[in-house]
Amino acid sequence: MKKYEEALTAVEIAITNADLDYRIKTIQRKAEILRALNRFNQIEKMYKEEVEREENDARKKLYQDEKTKISDYLSNLAKQNVHKVDETPWMRIKRLSATKPNYPAVGSSDWLLYTSSVEWEEQMTLVRKLQYGYNAQMPDLQQVSNIILEEPRAFALRSNDDLNKLQMLLSFSQQMRNAIGPQFSAEKIISTYNDRLKTEGWDKVRPALSVTVRALYMFTLVHLLNETPAESIPVLKKCIDVLELADKKWPEKQFPDRGATISNTFIRKLKVRLAESMSMVISQGAQDAVDLEHMKQLCNQVLSDCEKHPAMLHQVGAKFYLSFQIYCVADAHFSLSHYYKTKACEKKKDEKGYLIYDSEYLKKAITHYMYAARWYPEDEPNRSVVLWGVLECLILKGGASLNQLLDFRRDALEQDQKLAPVWGKVGDRKSEFAQSQIETIKSDFDRHGVSYDVVIPAMREVETNTVEQAQQVMDVLKKNNFTSDTETVKFISVLAKMKNDKPEVGANLD
After folding, report:
1. Cβ proximity of 267 and 216 under 8 Å
2. CA torsion sign, 217 to 222 to 224 to 225?
């Protein structure tokens, strides 16, 4: 507990001395630490219940010993995850990148957060220059919203003025496209746009509809920033309803007119965000305010969609693949674990008055926690939260041992290589093969990561399936100094073929 106390002290100092730029993230970090402490107290209480319920002295001693081990284990876990609190995450990543040339690795959580945060800051630089009247360079609302759709944690505001400027951007975009405001119902929005189609045509209605949807999504981010997820739920629902109603209303519209991948990207991510908001409400103790069956349905829809229509790396690029395939699967499993844990903990008592829990639901919760652990990148902070969740479910089942917990953890780490069938173990810092080339891969993806006319022929030509063959190809490319873009992309395609065994999506375990 000493480490937590030190962290809390550091938070107090940081809140007093931190720059305004970092104040919001600082307060959020304090909230994370307090939530962690609260979880630990809950776990201690549950273990105490188990000890009081046990009548065998030997079993009591075993419970006490296990509690001590778990306490030590959680202290070590906390030690690994407490960072400086007076800086934003991407600034910490930038500092580490200066000392470690290969960090952050392509495909890692830090890499996604860093690249998205840099793009967000570039767009916010333009947003902060907005003024009423003429603007020489108008930021693109679609680009701004896409950045934080791919990585919501990149959303950061320096001050209230940033929020005012974003509202100004929404207002300008609505005026330019003559878009309907988000205050109307989904049915009213689609009905109004359908009437306008008779006089304006699809080339004007589609951009206006896009602004309406993106404005709705931007409003939800403010609620999440203020840690009021319950307020974001109806807005996210409306956003999804608008898109799905539009899909039903105009099914004859061709993909080039509507966006070829909107159902596999935007709608998929919105459903993940909605399920995540519901999970946050449950974590705040207000599960009665959440439609649990709707939450389960959303997650299963996302998992089924990811299984039927996976994002193909050679078509969309590394960042897109990580955000709209890997994270969507992982986050959906994470939310499903909340669903099953909540169902398992519906209050029932035995004859002695002790709470009893549904072991089948707990087993499913643990299963989904482990699916999430397998799909999240190795450096994803939610992997720590997954360990807390597994631990809690094991204790609720009764008779949990630390060895069981460590077995789950070992299983998850062994399955890391299946997280994405691209670089083997995502974010792996130990593989010399991946480490020696990761910088080249990163720079090449930054330069031409979505070069379809180069990637697709390369994927057909290279038939390498083993690490040894990939090493031979790498040696040949080294001799040629990667002088040709085609050669480099061939090498990337070799890595993509190194792991064909990805974990099953596990859409529905009922």
Report:
1. no
2. positive
Contacts of 289 (CB under 8 A, 6+ apart): 230, 281
Percent of the chain with pLDDT over 70: 48
DSSP letters spanning 146-179:
HHHHH-GGG---SSHHHHHHHHHHHHHHHHHHTP
Q: pTM for the complete prediction?
A: 0.64
Q: Are 7 and 82 contacting, i.e. CB atoms less than 8 angstroms apart?
A: yes
Contact call for residues 377 and 108 (beta carbons, < 8 A): yes
**For residue range 151-199, what is the model confidence (pLDDT) as tens digits?**
888 887 777 788 888 888 888 888 888 888 878 899 999 999 989 988 8
Structure tokens, 269: 């991510």
DSSP 199-244: HH-HHHHHHHHHHHHHHHHHHHHHHHHTT-HHHHHHHHHHHHHHHH
Cβ neighbours of residue 212 closer than 8 Å, sequence gap 6 or more:
174, 179, 180, 181, 182, 189, 242
What pLDDT does 301 receive?
Answer: 93
Block residue for tokens 């020489």:
136
Q: Are strands 348-349 and 355-356 parallel, antiparallel or unpaired?
A: antiparallel
